[in-house]
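pinging the channel bc i need a second pair of eyes. not urgent but kinda urgent?? the chain im working w is below, pasted from the shared doc
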Amino acid sequence: MSATMHNHTSKFCEGTTLYREFVAERAEIDRHKWIESEKQGRDVGFDWALTDWVFHYRNGWLRSRASRRGR
C-alpha cells in the first residue's frame, strides 16, 4: 500500500464510530493500567491491565457509554 493510500485510509478510519470507540476503550485501559500500577508500586503492564479491565470493568463501561448515547 502506498503512503498516500495509507494516509487516506487512516483518515477515513479515524472518522468512524468504530475507531472512536476503540480509541475511547484504549484510553480507559491505559487509565486503568496507570491506576493499578500506582496502587501496586510497579508497572503492571498493558496485557495485565487489559485482561483485568475487560474482566472487571468493560461491561459496565459499555453499558455506561450506551446509556449516554441513548441506546
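so The chain has one domain: 17-68. and Residues 17-68 form one domain. — does that match what u expected or am i reading it wrong
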